[in-house]
Amino acid sequence: AGVAVVPVVLRVHNQTHWFYLALVVLRFLLKLRLVAFDKTGTITRGEFMVTDFQSLTDDISLNTLLYWVSSIESKSSHPMAAALIDYGCLHAIEPKPENVEDFQNFPGEGIFGKIDGKEIYIGNRRIAVRAGSGAALTREVNIMGGKTTGFIYFGSTHIGIFSLSDACRSGAMEAIEELKSLGIKTIMLTGDCHAAAMLVQDQLRDAFDEVRAELLPVEKARIIEDLKERGPVAMIGDGINDAPALATADIGISMGISGSALAMETGHVILMSNNIQKIPEAVRLAKRTHRKLV
Ligand code: ADP
Ligand code: MG
Description:
13 strands, Rossmann fold, P-type ATPase A domain-containing protein, binds adenosine-5'-diphosphate, 7-stranded mixed beta sheet, binds magnesium ion, alpha/beta, 2 domains, Calcium-transporting ATPase, cytoplasmic domain N
C-alpha cells in the first residue's frame, strides 16, 4: 500500500512500469537533499504581460515591428510568445505566421524568423551575439528595472526592446519553506536575466538557498550533474529548455497542465495539478509511508 502513495500525489509517467518507478521515486524522495526549480512557468505562472515595447529606429514603425514580432512569435510555444501576440492584438495587429520563413527556436535564448525578406532575431542577451552584435546591452537592461527584457534584431542591428512581467505562483514561497523545514536545500535555475531572477527571489523573501541565472539548457543540466555529487537531486521544470536538466536529475518532475510536451516526456514524474506544494507533500508522505513500512 505504501508505494501507491506516490502516484496519488504525482502521476508516474510510464504507466506500464509505474509500480517499479513508484518504488524508485519513493526511495529518492526519502533521501532527497536538494530540489532545483526552473523559474519561468514553474515558480512563476508563465503568464506574461508586456509592460513596455519600443522601436529603437525611426525607419521602423511600432506597428511594423509588432507585426514582425507577433508573426514570428506565433511559431513559438514559449510563455513570452502569447504575451507578445496579445500585445499585438491590443494594437490591432494580426499575426501572419504563414509569412514567416526559416523559423528557428534557440532554447534559453530566443527565436529567429524571416518575414518580408527581413531576418529578425528576438530574445535575450545571448540572441544579440547570435545576431552578430556583441554590443553591450547593460544600459537597456537597467532601464527595464529588473523585468524580463527582450531584444529585437534586424540582422545585427538592434531595432527594438520590450519588457514583460510575470507573477509568482501562489504557494511558491510556502513550498520552498516546507522543503527547507524537511532539511532539503532549494536552488532556482533560470535562463532569464539576473535582475528578473532576483526580483522573484525578493518576492519570495529570499526563500531560495541559491539562485543561478542566464543559463542555457545544457548549463542547467551541468549544474544538476554537479549537485548530484552531494546527494539525490530533484528538478522541476516546464519548458523545452528544462528537458536536459529533467533527464539528468534523479527525479525529473514536469508541470502537468502547462508544461511543454518535451518536458512531460522527459520528466520521470508529472505534477498533475501544477501545484508545487505537492512536492514537499510527496516528501512528507514518502517519509510517513516509510515509517509505516519498516
Ligand atoms: P526559464 O529558464 O526561466 O524558464 P527560458 O530558458 O525558457 O527561461 O528562456 C530564457 C530566456 O530566453 C527568456 O527569458 C527570453 O529572454 C528568451 N526567450 C526564449 N524563448 C523566447 C521567445 N519565444 N521569444 C523571446 N525570447 C525568448
Ligand atoms: Mg520554464
